[in-house]
Amino acid sequence: MLAEPNRTPYDLNFRVLGFPVRVHPLFWLGAAVLGSNFFDRGGLLLYGLIWIAVVFVSILVHELGHALAFRRYGAGAHIVLYIIGGLAVPWSSVAGWKRRVIVSLAGPFAGFALYGLLYGSNKLNPWITPDTPMPVVMLFIWLLNVNLWWGVFNLLPVWPLDGGQVSDEVCRRYWPRNGQRISLMISVGVGSLVCLYSLACVINDRQAAEWLSFLPWWFPHGGWWTAILFGLLAIQSYLFLQQLQRTDRYWHDSDRVPWER
Fold first, then answer.
1. What's the pTM?
2. Would you state the pLDDT for residue 213?
3. Where are the domains of the chain?
């Protein structure tokens, strides 16, 4: 999931803050599918196009956070937007686990900064009022929600999300021999829990039940998309964990040459 997609004749290319940005055509399709329920709100395709714009801006800001952190530590980068996500691809490695953790955290926190800017500016000098056109209101609400909650979910210790990469760095630092395995176990567990919670939210909504009424109002609500995404990420982490274990068994002491024992 971290591989950069091949270039196509239909890529959109431009620069932001000196960083080359490439938007793969499947990015637009992924954003449209993710917000497919917004296309039936009337006003032609207006709300669907607003949603796509929100996803574009939010993911671009997220990846710019990573790219700026790479630049801060002497590594150039370019940005690729693909499917419903993006990549900040460094041109050289970043030395030091603490620096790599900061690079990983820079993406979500760039989104939080945009959230704070929008929320704070509206509080200081309200520009969303009862007279504001509904498309502008929805633009504001969606930008807030995406940059807050997508950032929160991205910080969960699930590989290859930013939180998963932070978890991997920390586990490798404190458990050099088994750190990667431990981080993958955490990834499987957290990904599975989020998947199950999201499915419970879907069933709760369909049956108008009160299973989750004990949760505070601000607690994020799961749905089909989060269930599918985190279910796939949990499976991916589990398969990677099995691959690591097979590799360890293959390189058991009895199979190593004498000078490696």
1. 0.85
2. 76
3. 8-155, 156-249
